[in-house]
Amino acid sequence: MQKNEDDKTTKNGRSLRELVYTYFCEQMKIGRLSPGNFINQSEICKELQISKAPLRDALIQFETEGFVSILPRRGVIINPLTLKDIAESYEILASLESEAVRSAYDKIEEHHLKNMESINEKLSQTLYDGKSIEYYGLNIDFHNIFIDLSGNTLLQKIVTPIKQRLYDFPLRKYNIEWEQENIKDHARFIISLRRGNREAAANIIKYEHWFFPLNEKYIRQFYQL
Question: Class for domain 83-223, per CATH?
Answer without folding.
Answer: mainly alpha
